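Per reviewer request, we include the raw input and output of the structure prediction for the construct analysed in the revised manuscript.
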Amino acid sequence: RCFPVLQDGHPWCPHGALPPVHLPEPPGRLLVASSAPVGIGTQSLKQILGNPESTGGRRSKRMRGAKVLVRTDVMATAGARLRPSHGLAGASQAPKPWMQNLYSLRTHTTRLSPESLNARRTAHVPSFRPTPLRLPGRAYRSAAAAHVHSLGRIERAGVPESQPDVVEVHWEGGLSDRFSCVWLRDHCRGEESFDKANCQKTVDTHKIPANISAKKVHIAPGGDSMRVEWDCEVQGVRSSVYDGAWLMANRHGSVEPGRVQQSTWGREMKEILPSISVPFKNFMSSEEAVFELVHKVRVYGVAYVRETPLCKETTGDLCKRIGAIRETFYGGLWETVVKPAGAADNIDSAYSTVALPAHTDGNYFEDPPGLQIFHCLHADPKGGDTLLVDGFKVAEELQKCDPQAYNILCNTPVTFQHHSAEHHVKARRTIFGLDDAGRLERFHFNNLDRCTLRLPIEKVNRFYDALRILTETIMDPKNEVWIRLEPGNTIIINNRRVMHGRSSLNASSGRRLVGCYISYEDFMSKHRVLAAKLKKDIHALSTEHREIAAEAELLSRLLPPGELQHSCRFRGLNRLNNVD
């Protein structure tokens, strides 16, 4: 997906004089480049596009040979427009049909010089059609239309003659949706049908007639809501009022509001990890800091609290800021230390000195742990390094390189078990778990806990082939992140996504970790509650994190390992640490 490239003062568009300029694949910034003076005032450009970083030109009325990087979401909110003859114009002007030339660009983290742009113009570029800027599931003719539509303002609404059991809503911005009358009546938010105190329905859904229809639809001034008059009375209700923004967010077939765009990662996470942490004092005193950490765990699958006091009780207090500590046969708060081989409480390989391959915990529970938390009280000076692998990144690679293997692991249930003297628990699940739309939503794998495989013989070899490819992908060095947990560091891991492991320990190791599990429901609840309380824009935050992760991934391919953290720091990675 690409944005128009300004060259010699004129933007490229599909029907313009300039041929398309091919931009690299790695992804949310806009590129504006020129090999000659461009008639765009620098201050006007900043006002419209939002503080772009410019180099190579004077800060005057014209930018000579300027290379500018700006963010796509600024364009959507500004509603800026392009004119082929005059470059950029102010956002206050009404959008025109040619605004369909406004396109979104995935992050491009390196600058293209005018010379390289000219070289690309002469190179062979396959024909393509740019994708219009869009909100999830919709195509828009312009960024301004996308922004207006996202506000949920209703232009008009009514009942189609050919389909009396629906209400058709036309939004400002030119798009429309149809809503089922049964669905609308079932989701009435009036006090007779919905208890706002506990968000529970009070309408008796089975009493709503299957052929219920709307007699009339009234639009409130400003288009913020609409009132529907029904052709029959249900539980004393003859009309219902619907907020436009609520209807927009919950239209048929839409993605559930608050869904977070996750960022997958490989070994570059070692350099990113310091920037996705919060200090203990802030975490314990500020809900803003709790939200920052919980949101980072949702985006990356991992984050940590630094400078945690070295005592077990403090670990419990920290964990309870996120959710209730989950009790299992390991206890509530448990300690991971080396235990004698014959000890009665040595019920897991975690208590031995052996290296542990990357795995997720508790796959043998019907409800696997949501979060895994480790607080380092004492480190092993010679061993016990922590291994992290992003299971979602592994899934992405497997789906690309071997779709058949990926599908096998999505559809073949595997039994996991824990068997000790006092406990024998089993659970059966697929390694990759998909939601009802086919999107990956969970990952569970621990080859040490895998129980006897029970498959028809014609499926056995195919499963082992898929398992072999999965393991090789997990063990690929570019997907492994090795870190050393220092005393005072508390790492929080999404156990339904990120695998953890460790290197071997010395027999006399004093390594001591205190940890616990928190249910996935409590973790998600905390994120939703704080997002609403603090009025956080989840989509905007997730986009910001995705841009940073994409930039770090690209830089990890271009820079020597020791230079990545330094480069990321100067490219604004630490701006995500608002609570610092």
